[in-house]
Design brief:
The protein is of the alpha+beta class. The chain is built from five helices and six strands. The strands form two sheets. Strands 1-3-2 form a three-stranded antiparallel beta sheet. Strands 4-6-5 form a three-stranded antiparallel beta sheet, covered by helices on one side. The chain is elongated.
Length: 138
């Protein structure tokens, strides 16, 4: 029963994803242990109700709690993204940075840290990491 309350709480959440720590805090409010939370994530990920990115990449801290809305946002994210031959910066917003980290965790983007060469003179110079996303090359 506590799983239903936890899953229902996602409908009220403003974002399409949350961090694992946020999920654990919500689970604690519902009386769900860490081990039960792992089973919860596996169960609801198995039929696409959520996507626990940690099941794909153990180092990831994200859980996509609204997969359909996440994909719709991702579509608009790609459309408005400034990119140079598939290279984008995670600068500008926390949400953009989180999206790029999630894409990297599931293998759809590759993080480029301290590129050994100048990628493109037109590419903005940020201290934040860059990502290569082959599917958005121009």
């Amino acid at each position: 029963l506590s799983w239903i309350f936890l899953r229902g709480s996602f409908a009220l959440h403003h974002s399409t994803y949350i961090t694992r720590q946020e999920l654990q805090a919500k689970a604690n409010e519902c009386g769900i242990t860490e081990e039960e939370l792992q089973h919860f994530c596996e169960f609801f990920t198995s039929f696409g109700s959520i996507l626990d990115v940690q099941l794909i990449d153990p180092n990831s801290e994200y859980v996509i709690i609204k997969p359909v809305e996440f994909l719709a946002k991702l579509d608009s994210f790609f459309e408005e993204m400034e990119n140079h031959y598939g290279v984008v910066s995670s600068k500008k917003s926390i949400e953009k940075s989180d999206f790029l980290k999630i894409l990297s965790s599931v293998g759809l983007a590759a993080e480029i840290v301290n590129p050994p060469i100048v990628l493109d003179a037109a590419l903005p110079k940020y201290n934040s990491p860059y990502y290569y996303i082959p599917s958005v090359r121009t």
